[in-house]
User: What shape does this take?
Amino acid sequence: MPSAEFMRFVAVGVASFLVDFGLLYVFHGRLHVVLWLAAGLAFSASMVVNFFLNRIFTFGSSGPLHAESARYLCLVLLSLGATVLLVTGFTRLGCPYLVSKALSTTILAIVNFFVYRRWVFTAASQPRGEGVPTT
Assistant: This one.
């Protein structure tokens, strides 16, 4: 049975996807913003939503915002590179590109959950009181 924390992570992922998808529709489909810009804006907004929902709702982190957001940005860029490599690799192995995308997304979501918990939101991975000096 998946942990409650992992289920919150999945819910945040779904919410982030809906923000991305919905804003892409609004920007390009309704406001007629050029597609590359609409997609970039929608994705960027969804990443901001994803960061803050994971920080607050999933992991309950109170670590330094600047440090966590910098680590998050690094992970997003690494995930982008890994997505390109995985989708390309699975497709070359004979998987349809949408299946390749679904496989890579699943793999990276599982990996990212642990990276979020152990590296991005480090304050959330420490038990309460740990690392706090006593006098």
Remarks:
- The chain has four helices and no strands.
- Residues 1-60 form one domain.
- The chain has two domains: 1-60, 63-122.
